[in-house]
Amino acid sequence: MAKNQTSLSAGIVAAIRKRRPTVVSREAAVNRGDIVIASYNIHKCVGTDGRFDPGRTAQVIGELGADIVALQEADQRFGERAGLLDLEHLRREAHLVSVPISGFSTKGHGWHGNVLLLREGAVSDVQQLKLPGVEPRGALVVDLDLKMGPLRVIAAHLGLLRHSRAQQAEAIIEAASDAGGRPTLLIGDLNEWRMGKRSSLSFLSPVFDPSHATVASFPSRFPLLPLDRVLGNPHSLVTSVAVHDSPLARIASDHLPVKASIDLKVGRRGDHNNERIEVSRAGSA
User: Fold this and answer.
1) H or E stretch covering 142
2) 143, β-bridge pairs
3) Cα–Cα dist 136/227, whole Å
4) What does the buried/exposed string (b/e) look like for 164-194 if buried means 16 or more CB atoms within 10 Å of the residue's CB?
């Protein structure tokens, strides 16, 4: 058994390394005027040191410098499901405002732990999806009117079971089908590292291409698995992807944040050709 586990671990590492692209600078994409998107599973503000520290989590969110941030596990999972972050602090310090939703309780921040933070722009519509599967899971479908154009963001946290993820992927495709021509992002912790036909994310094709823009984000101390994703429709909407690897991010959660740049001009052109996506490892080494 130990030999088999060692072989499996070696296979995972080899698979990740094989598809790891050349490291490039994220700043090139930002300087083009692209919108910066981020996804972060904050692990209920409990770090790899076992300490509950919402202030530390907020500091990592501030490090990202993103225009839109999707958070997962931002509420208590049981009981009153209270929110775990100081949203007013994030508004003051990071200039990010939570997209309003109907939570499970008056103290909750998100929908099944999903929160979407926005720097600027107008929210024209919000849908709260209950995703199928064994575990209670959900997704936010938010239509935004930004300075650079309209955008639909689907912020999700998929389940731990492959069969559930496959069902959830199909529900997300249905949610993306009525975007009315808006460029659409799927962002969040999709809980899948496999590629190709074995991946539960293959059900997202061809609307989203799960083989694009994979960066290892889990576990945060030694990231090997690309659980956190930013996927676009059209596929060329996403111009760069990076994992945010700072000293604080390594201990603030068991996931590292993932951030990406998107070019809404691509969406307005209706360009569905796949272009090269820049992928890098940002932050301190």
Assistant:
1) strand 137-146
2) 125, 152
3) 19
4) bbbbbbebbbebbeebeebbbbbbbbbbbbb
Whether 138 and 129 have beta carbons less than 8 Å apart is answered as yes
CB atoms within 10 A of CB 137: 24
Pairing assessment for the beta strands 238-244 and 184-189 based on DSSP bridges: unpaired
Burial class (CB in 10 A: 0-12, 13-18, 19+), 270: exposed
Strand partners, 269: none
User: In whole angstroms, what is the distance from residue 285 CA to residue 283 CA?
Assistant: 7
- Evaluate whether 142 touches 155 at the Cβ level (below 8 Å): yes
Q: Which residue has the tokens 């921040």?
A: 109
What are residue 18's phi and psi, to 5 degrees?
-65, -35
**How high is the mean pLDDT in each 10-residue block of the chain (285 residues)?**
44 40 36 80 97 97 97 82 88 94 77 94 94 93 94 96 94 90 95 89 92 90 96 93 96 97 75 46 48
d(CA 154, CA 64): 19
Q: Is 67 in a helix, a strand, or coil?
A: coil
Answering whether pTM is above 0.85, one says no
Closest CA to 204 of 164, 174, 224: 174
